[in-house]
Model the fold of this input.
Amino acid sequence: MAYSGIQNWLSEELKTIQKSGLWKNEKLIKGSQGSYVQTSQGEMINFCANNYLGLADNEEIKKSVIQGMEEYGFGMASVRFICGTQDIHKDLEDVISVFMGTQDTILYTSCFDANAGLFETILSPEDAVISDSLNHASIIDGIRLCKAQRKVYAHSDMNQLEEQLKDTQSNRFRLIATDGVFSMQGDLAKLDQICDLAEKYDALVMVDDSHATGFLGESGRGTAEVFGVVDKVDIVTSTLGKTLGGASGGFTTGKSEIIEYLRQRSRPYLFSNTIAPPIVLGAIKAFEILTNNPNLRHTLWSNTEYFRNSINSLGFDVIDGIHPIVPIMVRDEIKTVKLADEINKEGIFVVGFSFPVVPRGEARIRVQISAAHTKQHLDKALSVFEQKGKALDII
Done:
């Protein structure tokens, strides 16, 4: 049989992954995502979700989702240009545009699809795209699909970015692509400097703001708001699957001509069903909640500052920053897996990250803080980290 050859190869590769400490186990969760989760190991305090504002099990959002199911059904059963667009999908696109301060918005089934459908649609062989070396896999894969000249600059290295802008001045269009927040690091792109360079060299700026939309910035607009460059960023892609209820769905928002061209030519949009109606109404409600309740953001920032200061004082190697993503660097893959397992046993849900999610030798536990966490949750986690870190000679 043809399969036997690749079966043997796959079996050996899987054994190698296990032996190297790079195996990724998926923990079974019984119930909703919240500050606590029920797992096969019992109840655990959740420190590894992107549930930044604690909206994943919000009662108002759940009611809106039920309403969406009753009034609009389970799904569209086709793509928008064939079977039509429900009014609530247009409503959500308008809500996003108003919230983000942009001209227009297009929905995708995920931000991964938004990024996959962006670069090949608007860029051609005579163009160039310049990408940060630590950009999310979806940006990397999206760029691979396009035929533009590709450049990569060292992470947040503005001198190298400028050199690449100089080198590509003969190209028709240049697009700088960056994460707003780098998900494995928790650091922010230098968007003010990036936008200055883009203006100097007549380039466009694209930001994937999945780990910022809804809570970063004074009103939650994201990284561009932090740096005061909302009007200088041409394209923002982001997700509904993190801060905004944590379900699914993504979007691209920005200049109206770009968005309309995506509606006409973007393959993931044209050939995939759109977001299910219940999720649409849930997302609209999530935007309403975070707009009307800034205390959620304030609680998140207070929790983040407390945890970051405390974990640093314990002696862990933590990547500096202000973001609720807190990368605790262990570096040794085997020890990272062991530390995560030992912490899980004490009722704290964390996950070790290793290659290929991060480079070899850069293994870490990525703690994620939420507005749903109480000080008691944070103190419990800190106590367990201290105990297990000492036991494994990490601190």
